[in-house]
Amino acid sequence: MAVSPVLLRTGAVALGSIVTGIGYAALIERNAFVLREITMPVLSPGSTPLRVLHISDLHMRPDQRRKQAWLRELSSWEPDLVVNTGDNLAHPKAVPAVVQALGDLLHRPGVFVFGSNDYFGPRLKNPANYLINPGHRVHGEPLPWQDLRAAFTERGWLDLTHNRREFEVAGLHVAAAGVDDPHIDRDRYDTIAGPASPVANLRLGLTHSPEPRVLDRFAADGYQLVMAGHTHGGQLCLPFYGALVTNCGLDRSRAKGPHSGARTCGCMSPPGSGRHRLRRCGLAAGPKPPC
Questions:
Q1: Could you tell me the pTM of the whole model?
Q2: Which domain holds residue 102?
Q3: What is the C-alpha separation between 187 and 166, in angstroms, rounded?
Q4: CATH number where 15 lies
Q5: What is the pLDDT of residues 194-212, one digit of tens each?
Q6: SS3 174
Q7: What is the C-alpha separation between 14 and 8, in angstroms, rounded?
């Protein structure tokens, strides 16, 4: 049977768009460092504003000097709290580069969880696999996540991996909890399950991959804000169109930025090997989460 010229042209346009998108991400967006600012009214009524810097998906290599220099400049914003949602590493010798790049931010109050690419190195793969074979997992060599954890905790950051912690920051009471990366089925929400402190000004949940099963549990336990990474704003995107796939259970419309449910706000940070954008969040008091 002959193939319609219209179908051939349509297929060629679609293929050309995908190739263009991959080239755009590889050659342009991976060096397009952007700091985005958003305000989220999620604090309890009467709370003073809180400045939060959300860092995720650095995928750092020792030779990425430009990225490291850009990160070092972020300390000038003087956030009240730094939130790191994982995938910091992309090389077995990258821990010193991450620590040096974060610089003075490690002396600010901070919390973190890890992602799969803190545990395992990247492997060369076809980006289209995010579309045609999303469940396929290929792990690279083991990465020194224990060294990274030690570097973070020695400087005062709190590891929220299957932990619940309450602390004061900028005069506010924060109740925070986190899980290990759901993308590789390391999440064990039952270890932190239970209502979050009702007296906290901010009830904060952390996860690397924003899987709905985890987001729903955080919401049910009363967390006002859940912060995640992993999606890179869409693991595969087209210019002027956006995400084709999120590589998790979220739909494409929620690949990045703030989003709200009935009880909880979520914030997906888009930085990563293809998109280096960090979230500078101003948290304010509000009657409900209209993110």
A1: 0.75
A2: 5-285
A3: 21
A4: 3.60.21.10
A5: 999 999 999 999 999 988 8
A6: strand
A7: 10
